[in-house]
Automatic annotation (TrEMBL):
Native species: Nocardia stercoris
Gene3D superfamilies in UniProt: SP0830-like domains
Protein name: DUF1697 domain-containing protein
Xref: Pfam families: DUF1697 (PF08002)
């Protein structure tokens, strides 16, 4: 059995249909094992014999839409992919903190072209570190002290589309620990 993390897009814990207990129930209802949640931002861990992440994404998303009306998007990564990503130490000597967020933006599909760098208006607030091919993750450092930071997600969606979801590096570590 393989362990997976499902990163759900657009989860708002204030919405009763998006609370962890309801999200877990939907995934458990699909017959997956060891279902758990990490934080309250749409991170679900589970195990199953299925080995096609794209099929798992579709299956989970269809169930979330049908049972809870959630249409935001689901991105699945295997524990081994997340372990390799974390072990690659993409942020080396950097520390996640209030002023500087280390982030991983997971793409549903492989990156369509070359790695984009932040446009001039975001250059002071965002540094794209690299793209991790196996995890399909764009790794960035975001300066939270800059007023321009609020434009980051719009830029990322413009460049990579809406089939993405971003997590802090701390969240990626917490998800991996729960797997």
């Amino acid at each position: 059995m393989t362990r997976y993390a499902a990163f759900l897009r657009g989860i708002m814990p204030s919405n009763p249909n998006m609370r962890n207990d309801r999200l877990r129930a939907v995934v458990e209802g699909l017959g997956f094992d060891g279902v758990g949640s990490v934080l309250s931002s749409g991170n679900i861990v589970f195990g199953c014999a299925q080995t096609d992440p794209a099929e798992l994404e579709d299956k989970i998303q269809a169930a979330l839409r049908a049972e809870l009306g959630i249409g935001g998007g689901t991105i699945v990564r295997a524990r081994d992919e997340l372990r390799a990503l974390v072990d690659s130490d993409p942020f080396a000597d950097l520390t996640h903190g209030r002023g500087s967020y280390l982030t991983a933006t997971f793409l549903k599909q492989p990156m369509p072209g070359p790695l984009a760098t932040a446009p001039p208006e975001l250059a002071a607030a965002v540094r794209v570190v690299r793209y991790d091919v196996p995890a399909r993750a764009v790794l960035s450092v975001i300066d939270n002290t800059s007023a321009e930071t609020s434009k980051y997600m719009g830029w990322v969606e413009q460049v990579y589309g809406k089939d993405i979801t971003t997590r802090t590096w701390l969240t990626v570590h917490k998800v991996l620990a729960k797997l």
